[in-house]
Amino acid sequence: MLQHEGRTIGEVFSDAAARYADKPFLIVPADPARAYAGDGWQASYREVAGVVEELAGAFSAAGLGSGDRVAVLLENRPQMLILKLALASCGISWVPINPDYRAGEMAYVLADCAAALAIVVGARAAVMREAVELNGGACPVVVWDGEGMPLLPVIREAGPEASIEPESEASLLYTSGTTGRPKGCIISHEYELMMGARYASLGGVAQIGTACERIYNPLPLFHVNAGIVLFYGMLLTGNAQVIPERFSRTRFWREVRETRSTGIHY
User: Which terminus of the chain, N or C, has fewer Cβ atoms within 10 Å?
Assistant: First the structure.
């Protein structure tokens, strides 16, 4: 397992990309009915690192950096996780948005977290813009379906880079809001990596090897289970996360077989 104590997510991912360069990192099963990657999709650690570097450069050029928060609503596309790594490398906090939120719930989260920017998939752009309007229109909305690079507006002039520490905020995750207003939970770089390390070291029937596993997880990426616990467990051990759109009784075993998954997380 990669050394993670006293380090940031960006530092750990840089090591993983160098060590496991051509190993698969993110895998999407084929599904012709899905709006993206109908034939399936796969990216290695090296390939993801290249995209992360480009995205980080775009965020820096937009004037975003340490202390900022960016709301992200890309459903279960793997770019949710790629964006997470890029934001973390810049010291920006990832605020994943539940795609089932209504405009009022989104508006509350955007205001509560003081999002500097919202990145949203085209299919959810209308409800995100409605949410922004409910807040007075202060948060720029960027539509991105995962192809190419998102076109980011300049939020402010780029300043000197602030330091990123293990204690720095990496994510702000919100509850579902079913029993009241959604509640935010601040999670640091250190804590996210600790969760992944704990998952990867459970042993027993959950024994995780190094650079040999493909773990299938149909849970939503805005949730801590798929977006942090398993994600960093895979990153720290050089393994791959298999990301279907959602659980499907009829596609489940076919997707497990076709992606050559070695384990299932549910």
Answer: C
Question: How far lies 3's CA from each of 7, 19, 128, 161, 235, in Å?
Answer: 8, 12, 39, 25, 11
State whether residue 48 is helix, strand or coil.
helix
Residue count of the chain, please give it: 266
* Sheet hosting strand 93-96, strand order edge to edge: 141-143, 117-120, 69-73, 93-96, 169-174, 184-188
> What type of residue sits at position 219?
L
Distance from C-alpha of 258 to C-alpha of 19, rounded to nearest angstrom: 26
Instruction: Read off the pLDDT of each residue in 99-112 and give the average, rounded to a whole number.
Output: 93
Q: Would you state the structure tokens that stand for residue 266, as one six-digit string?
A: 């549910």
Count of C-beta atoms within a 10 Å radius of residue 165: 14
* Helices 45-61 + 9-19 axis angle, to 10: 140
User: What is the distance between the alpha carbons of residues 170 and 93, in angstroms, rounded to a whole number?
Assistant: 5
The whole-number pLDDT of residue 179 equals 77
Q: Which residues contact 5 (CB under 8 A, 6 or more apart)?
A: none
**Whole-structure pTM value:** 0.95
Q: Residue 158 pLDDT more than 80?
A: no
Helix/strand/coil for 206: strand
Mean pLDDT score, 181-188 = 92
